[in-house]
Design brief:
homodimer, mainly alpha, Arc Repressor Mutant, subunit A, Tetracycline Repressor, domain 2, 2 domains, 11 helices, DNA-binding
DNA sequence: ATTTGGTTTAACTATCTGGTCAAAAATAAA
DNA sequence: TTTATTTTTGACCAGATAGTTAAACCAAAT
């Protein structure tokens, strides 16, 4: 086999990523992806047989970004509060660089829950057994030590995820609701959330004396 | 004009609502809506000229559900904490009855931010001037009185919205992450959130002494 | 009974879209 | 140079889909 020119494949993936993430699987057009990559539409099918196959490739890579290494923060010697501060800061910063990502992932997963979730169920399995169990244990310990109030692990994690992710998915609503479509005001608001979220969570769970 | 048979129009709207909310504008098919309403596809175009027109009708009604009367709770004599408890309970209960609603609204608004948001900007305007200002004033007063800690109005409201809405949009992820696709476990988790959210928020902002 | 006007339907159209194919172009091997 | 292999392209196809149209239907008014 000839030395394969990777740049075409890469160009396609890049273009597909952009179009899929912005328009969704249903809304994306193969022609638009081809245009974006500045190649012939047939080449898409030459490298990736079908739209679904191409989408799968993109989606898998996107998921790796969405469920990031940041989770490894949970597996460290830091205190729970430090972990929460570090995670929320880093994760919100990550999403800031990929603002369409939350909406895309949420939408596609709710459209094809069965098929796609299976694609990356491996991720979840690993996650659950490693970082997650450690964090759960730490939380239970801090509850027993009276450092944080009693709260269910699931609820706390979902609360943190909600506070980080939702504002990105709901950006158009928030823009109208609070900032009258003023981008600067929104930027200001979004920046503050990098510490606001941890602040809000820690205030909620920390036991004062 | 003959006495118009409203039942056909109503059947169409009902069917369109179901299909659009589940599949989105892009994913929905006029034929599927016709089938769902048990009528001929041509009738769709007879009553609502185009797919976009039909979608508009549906979307407007959906928005009225999504931004509910529940907000009127904010305009009452209750204490801030009572308002938070009442709102989160009622709103989560509402979403429980319309679980696809959050995902649908968020997705469509992020697809066509300009066009659609304009459609119902009236809602926002009214909201902002009435209930919202009252609530903002109350919060600022409670901060001054030392009942709750200092926190920005915007951030607090977005936090509450996040905690209520996100879990519905992210249901497929949460199912995998925490409950191994076990519906009973998820149901149990979701039920608890009706009080968990208010609990979490109030713990975060209440000043202890 | 006939007319009238809104309602419903089946058949059809134009267009879009994912996908194929064979040939051309480019590149490597002989 | 010649041959073989891989990459790229333009033309094309089949199926899907939003939307049209003309005719049938039906209920009320004359």
């Amino acid at each position: 086999m000839k030395q394969k020119d990777k740049s075409t494949e890469a160009k396609i993936l890049e273009a597909a990523n952009k179009v899929f993430v912005e328009k969704g699987l249903d809304g994306a057009r193969m022609q638009e992806i081809a245009d974006e990559a500045k190649i012939n539409k047939s080449l898409l099918h030459y490298y990736y047989r079908s739209k679904d196959k191409l989408f799968s490739e993109v989606f898998q890579k996107v998921i790796k970004t969405f469920l990031p290494d940041t989770v490894k923060i949970f597996d460290s010697e830091k205190s729970l509060f430090e972990k929460i501060e570090t995670f929320t800061l880093e994760y919100i910063t990550l999403l800031e660089k990929n603002p369409f990502l939350p909406m895309f992932v949420l939408h596609e997963l709710s459209q094809k829950p069965i098929k796609i979730t299976d694609t990356f169920s491996g991720f979840f399995d690993n996650l659950k057994q490693n970082q997650f169990e450690i964090l759960k244990f730490q939380i239970e310990k801090e509850i027993q030590n009276g450092i944080i109030r009693p709260i269910e692990f699931d609820q706390l994690i979902v609360n943190i995820m909600s506070l980080c992710i939702f504002p990105f998915a709901a950006k158009p609503i928030l823009m109208k609701l609070f900032f009258g479509d003023n981008k600067n005001q929104y930027k200001n608001f979004a920046d503050k959330r990098k510490i606001e979220v941890a602040d809000f969570v820690i205030h909620s769970i920390k036991v004062k004396n």
